[in-house]
Amino acid sequence: MVEIIIQYVLIVLLIAGLGYLAYLLKDKELNLKDDYFGLAYVILGSLATSESTPENAKKIIRIVSKAVQFVENNYRNSENTLKEKEAIKIAKNWTTSLNFQINVDDESLKYLVRIAAALLPPTNKPIILESSEPKL
């Protein structure tokens, strides 16, 4: 009997929590369709309120993607940490040309560079597994 009451209470709390989450999202007027997997919210949080538009987020994502492609083409045999630093430096220079009041911070650029690098086509290098499992 007690277990059934606890289950009902947990269901009511779950519904109340989901309702509160919907209220928070509606209150901030955040359109999840335009959020690009949470990237836009991170980028736009570092910009001034007048510059926080989805169009600016798209521009920044495109700039970071082009910077990563440029670094991958020109620093092909370098270490990944060097490539990441160069891509951040290039992306920072290119985003300053957008003339925002507040530039995109380095942390946001670092995460965007890592995501853009992960989305690059494979280099067909063999993957070295560190476990004793058979290699695929």
Structural description of this entry:
There is one protein chain. With 136 residues, the protein is an all-alpha fold. Helices cover 62% and strands 0% of the residues. The chain has a domain at 25-118. It has helices at 2-27, 39-45, 54-74, 80-96, 106-118. It is flat and about 70 Å long. 16% of the residues are buried. The model has no long low-confidence stretch (mean pLDDT 79).
Sheet/helix structural class: mainly alpha
Gyration radius over CA: 21 Å
Order of helices and strands: HHHHH
Q: Please, how many helices?
A: 5
The main β sheet shows up as: none
Q: TL;DR of this structure?
A:
The protein is mainly alpha-helical and 136 residues long. The protein has five helices and no strands.
SSE blueprint and pairings:
Layout lengths: L1 H26 L11 H7 L8 H21 L5 H17 L9 H13 L18
Helix pairs in contact: 2-3, 3-4, 3-5, 4-5
Characteristics:
flat; 136 residues; mainly alpha
